[in-house]
Amino acid sequence: MVNGCGGPAGFAGACIAGLLVFASIFAPLIAPYDPVAVSIIDKLMEPDAAHWMGTDQSGRDVLSRVIWGSRASLAVAGFAVLIGVTLGVAIGLFATWVRGSWLEQAIMRVLEAVSSIPILIWAIALVGIFGVRDAQWGPFIVSSETKLLVLLGLLYIPTLARLTYVSALGEVGANYVAARRLQGVGELGILFSDVLPNCLSPVIVQATLLLAIGIIVEAAVSFVGLGVQPPTPSWGNMLASGRDYLISGEWWLSVFPGAAISLTVVAFNLLGDGLRDRFDPRHSTSMGYAT
Amino acid sequence: MTSLLLRRLGFSLFSLVVVSLLLFVLTRSIPESPARIVLGDDATAAQIAAFDRDHGLDQPIVVQYAAWLERVVLAGDLGQSFTTGLSMNRQIADTFPVTMELVVVAFVVASMLSIVLGTLSAFYRDSPIDYFARLLAVLGVSIPGFWLALVLILTFAVDLDWFPPGGFVPLSEGLGPHLLSIALPCFCLAVFYLAVITRMTRSSLLEVLNQDYMRTARASGLGRGRLLMYAMRNALLPVVTIAGVSFGHMFGWALIIEQIFNIGGMSRALLTAINQRDYFMVQTVVMVFTIVFVLANLLADLVNAWLNPRLAAVAS
Q: Given a cut of 60, is residue B45 above it in pLDDT?
């Protein structure tokens, strides 16, 4: 179990991440108070036995809001990675499938070019362009949270597609692939049943590190008021409203959500680095969650 | 060398064209038209058509892009904002230097300190300084800069009152106040990259020090300084690449840091434009960021080619 995560540090990361996911799924049961229940009499109370993390300017329990806030962070980070991995792997495999043609060249050059996009700025700008308010799209109501996770997922594609392409290209030249070909298996069949499983490990490592990036980007975008909209709690928008109370001394409004972000980011980074050590011990230095 | 330079330059230009085209299409694919935003909900269809015609918005998107590219590249004119009517060159000129200063100061501090620290850490492996560097590297990548900023404001500006809690004091009001006003934001920006570059310098240098040619150099009695010089030339390659990428990323993070410290740089330009639904200004700001990012990477490649002539030889 410990070795599966690449050592004790990776295991610790997996445990913390697991706890956070658990807390976000069971938030209604775990949170001691209603995260949006306003109670002006209780406003700005310091942390005590009743409110472990104090209360905010509207008397809402900060601990409950931090627990509920994990939902927004983890949902954005998780679904964005899911979108990025699905489409990125598909595009990477497609480029491998059409290798040797002009299409492969075109796909790879364009992917390289769009890799020069700084994710954070684009996420902020695109959410800004597509609007913060809920949008009606057919029968669906698209919240700014959903917009953010879709856009972030799309921004992840170049990295993941290139990663898949590079490792898949290494695999298609291997002997076992030649053997499968001689057995009469079609090229697409080989790609999905033999090549894909063998090039997933770098993708999994990268996906874990991208989870950490997603947490940070969600917090940053909500911090500038373009992500999750109040009163729904998110760590980013809690930090933003807590900022106004910092100078007057109500430190608990911003310190606890900030600590939650740090803890989550550390957890995913430890897990990602651990998995990297396990799958690819030679490259144990990473860039971490730089966006 | 020239061949490598041309290739990298060509690729950078290609990147910029692809990315700007993407951005151009995205900003023009939003449901509400600029005419609606500027003229309001009760504008007639004729007024909207006239607005679109005046601003060339009725043209096919490729024609619009070509016209935009021609104006930007040949005349250096970013155009005017539709909603405010202000010149975008002017707005960028007002805000860009502020952000640039923050990033450059943070970058220089981060890269100088980290290369020294990473080198010491690799040379004196498992000594106290190595432990210190590794601890710093772990802490630095784990603490999000914007949270660190809040904690620093709380400690050094609110409790201790050493620094102002926010705001930007221009250089014209004195060097001392100016430096005090940018110290905390620069520190917050620098910490993460200090950690990343230290880590990269350390691991890259350790790898080079274990190579056979370094053992030979040591065995033939070269002094410490000479050894360091040979090792650094090889070890710096990945460090320079990471530093180049870091510079671009720092620009992105400066956006958030500026918000926290209430500094009127590019972040204000971007967020004001978003709030005013001034999409062409948003496009311009994002394009400026992307250009900086691409240029920083290009510069890192060129420094690498200069450090290691083998790279240039492979390219030609």
A: yes
